[in-house]
Structures are given as C-alpha cells and as structure tokens.
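Predict structure. Chain length: 325.
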Amino acid sequence: SKLTLVRWSGIALIVVCAGAVLGQPGAEQEFDAALRQFQSGEYEKAAGALEAVLPALEDPGRRVEALHMLGAIARTQGRYDDSIRWTDSAIEAARAAGATLDEAEAHNTKGLALAGLGRYAEASASIRESLELHRARGDAEQQFARLSNLGALAQMRDRYFDALSRYESALELLDRHADAAWAQPRRTVALANLASLYQRVGRSERALDLYGGLATVTALPPEQQARMFANMGALYRRLGDPFKAIEAYDRAAQLAAQAGDASLQVGVLVNRGIALALDLNRLDDAEAVFTRVIELARTSGERLPELHGLLYRGETLRRARRSGE
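Prediction complete.
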C-alpha cells in the first residue's frame, strides 16, 4: 500500500531578507511572478519561469529558493532524476551561503525524490541529514516531519520495528509540544502513518478504524488525503468490499489530480482498474480506466506505469473476449 510521506516542507518557501540585490533588471519581478505560480499550483509555468530567471539571480537566498522549487516541482511531477539534480544544486548553494534551514529543506526534498526511484537507503540518509540540521536549530515541527518520513521509508523497506520506533518518536515529540499551533494537524499525519503500518502488517480492522476517524479531517493537504483514501481502498478490497474500495479510489484520484501529483493519480487509477476488472467484472469500465492510466503516464513521462497500464488493459481485453465467446 502507498504510505503517507510527510511533505509539509518539501516544497516550503524560504523567507528571504528584504532589500536583496537580484542582478539584472526585471529579475525580481520575474521571480515574484514564478513564486506566485508555484504557490497557486501552476507548476509547469512556474518551472519555465524559474529556469528562465535563474541565471539572473545573484542574491544567494533567492537562488537557493529557485533551485529548491525546481526540485520540488520535478518531484511532484515524477521527474525524480531532475529533482535530485536541482536539489543537489540547492544544497550546494545553501551550504555556500551558510543557509542551514534551506539546506535541510533541500535534503528532505532530495530524499523524497530518491524514494520515488526506490533508492530507499539513500533516501533515508538524505532525510536523516535534514533531521540533524533541524535538531541543531531546535525546530520541533520539522523534526516531526523528518521522523515521520524516516518511519515511512523504514516501512517501505519492511523494517517494521524501525518504522514503529520512528512513528512513536514523532508522537512523543508532539506530546512535548502539545500546545504548539502546529501540533494538532501533525497528529493527524502521525495517526495516518500508524494506520498504514497496521495495514502493512495485516491489522486491517485497526487500520480502518484509524483511517475512518481521519476521513473527514481537512487539515491534511490534498496529496496526503489522496494517499490515505488510496490506503482505505486497498483495505476495503482486502476485507472483501469492492464497492467501498471503488469509492475510496475515486476520492483518492480526485484529490491526487487536485494536488497535481500525476504519479500518485496514475497509481490510484491502476488499483481502481484492477478492482473493477477482478472484483466487479466491470471490464468496459476497467478498460477505460487503464486507457486513462496510459494517457497520464505518457504525459508525465513515466515509463513503468505506462507499461502497467498497457499490460492490464491487454489482460482486461482478453477477459472481455473470453466472456463474449
């Protein structure tokens, strides 16, 4: 099942000092326009504008910010190698500027991109480096985010005790900062991660109880809500309720599209198509879903999901022909 990786600051904006010198005339306005596009989720436009203005940015803070945003956009779009390239540049620039917080943020985004490539050991190392930088600054909120990500990565590697330890450390941190404004929304993430761990080890009913309590929570960003509903879909399938599974997958796909996360949307749709074909024998509907998967995967340049879509659509068509004989 998909995990809820905490990305609260994976695409966070870096506060820069007023009065910075940006270099060529117009660079400041172009950067601000790209920033607004980024904040509104217009990632394609933002990426193009940032790449265009980057050579003109002389202020170290804004240059780091631009590099990090480019890395975050590439990761969201499933272009993980590009994301690693941009975040490596951001890390180097942040170190040169002595910008510890910026460096920590870029390490986290790089770790998430590495995880997207299945390079979990490297991803964990990058996020641990981010964690230590945040610890040195005493930033509890970001420590929580990194501990949660490390737990999710351990879970992906089937290291369940390590995952539980990381999640418990994150919850202990929340308990120590219970009065902080950020604590309650982050507790939602912690419980979602625990639910995904219970799901992974076969405690389906306990996982659904936790997810059920979180289903109406709106504090989570759309991407993380999408992952939670995708997990619920998988659980309902396991428990033999394909109708509720389809409902959960539908909600997950809507939220993934809203978040602009093409990779997540494709993964959810693959699972939805499988449920339609195998559990409900709605082969025409399943074929349409897999066709959509292929289209989305080609648009985002994700070769493996495209192959999955072609494989599952072919199998669906084969089953349809057999049922018609």
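Summary: Residues 303-324 form the longest helix (22 residues).
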